[in-house]
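Sanity check

After download, print the first record. It should look like this:
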Amino acid sequence: MTKILPPRRTGKGVPPTSAQVVYNLDRREACTLKPLNFKVSPEFHREFKAYAAVHGLSMVDLLREGFALVKARRG
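Expected structure tokens:
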């Protein structure tokens, strides 16, 4: 027979009081990157990655530059 143990405590302590978290949703996000997930064909991915590499750009920088051009053209 297997003995079932009680759940382990995480050691996080007690939650903050409501007075401590009044503005917790109004804070700006830290300067971190957020994932932008979408699927492309393997051929497009290969071409995009190769173009970025040949021109010494990261794929993110190439996407940003392309998006800036589209915004400038379309308004």
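If your output differs, re-run the checksum step. Summary of this record's structure: The mean pLDDT is 86.
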